[in-house]
């Protein structure tokens, strides 16, 4: 078993509970870690023995392009889509961060992490 990660994917999107967040938009960061059997890729140097990073990015980008209220919802949709597209995945961990969340105080980012 191995882990494949894409870290620090950045997006500008219009997610949020408040209408102002959906109008102004914000910067987001997404990290994805996939537990997958990569033995074939390690032995044979072939892409079909692992997951295609480009396709993983495209799936995350597609989810990020659809407005949502909650980071939890985004992370859940990413997990579902990744598992549907890559049946060889045993587990997925997704971290979604919103920079400068709308709170009454200083906070660099709010982060949600889901696993499934």
Secondary structure layout:
Layout: E1 2-13, H1 19-24, E2 26-36, H2 39-44, H3 53-64, H4 71-85, E3 89-99, E4 109-115
Antiparallel strand pairs: 1-2, 2-3, 3-4
Question: Explain this structure to me?
Answer:
- The protein is α+β, with helices and mostly antiparallel strands.
- 34% of the residues lie in helices and 35% in strands.
- It contains 4 helices and 4 strands, in the order βαβαααββ.
- The chain is elongated and about 50 Å long.
Cα Rg = 15 Å
Based on DSSP secondary structure assignment, what is the total number of beta strands?
Answer: 4
Q: Quick check: average pLDDT?
A: 96
Strand order of the largest sheet: 1-2-3-4
Structural class of the helices, strands and pairings?
alpha+beta
What is the first-to-last residue Cα distance? 16 Å
Largest sheet: 4 strands, antiparallel
Residue stretches low in confidence (pLDDT < 50, at least 5 long) are none
Number of distinct helices: 4
- Report the portion of residues in β strands: 35-45%
What is the N-to-C order of secondary-structure elements (H for helix, E for strand)? EHEHHHEE
Shape, principal axes of CA atoms: elongated
Helix content: 25-40%
């Amino acid at each position: 078993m191995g882990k494949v990660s894409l870290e620090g994917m950045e997006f500008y999107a219009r997610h949020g509970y408040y209408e102002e967040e959906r109008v102004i938009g914000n910067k987001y960061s997404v990290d994805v870690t996939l537990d997958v059997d990569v033995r074939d890729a390690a032995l044979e140097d072939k892409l079909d023995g692992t997951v295609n990073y480009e396709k993983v990015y495209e799936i995350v980008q597609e989810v990020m392009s659809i407005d949502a209220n909650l980071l939890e919802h985004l992370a859940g949709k990413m997990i579902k889509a990744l598992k549907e597209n890559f049946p060889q995945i045993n587990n997925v961990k997704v971290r979604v961060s919103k920079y400068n969340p709308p709170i009454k105080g200083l906070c660099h980012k709010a982060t949600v992490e889901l696993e499934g």
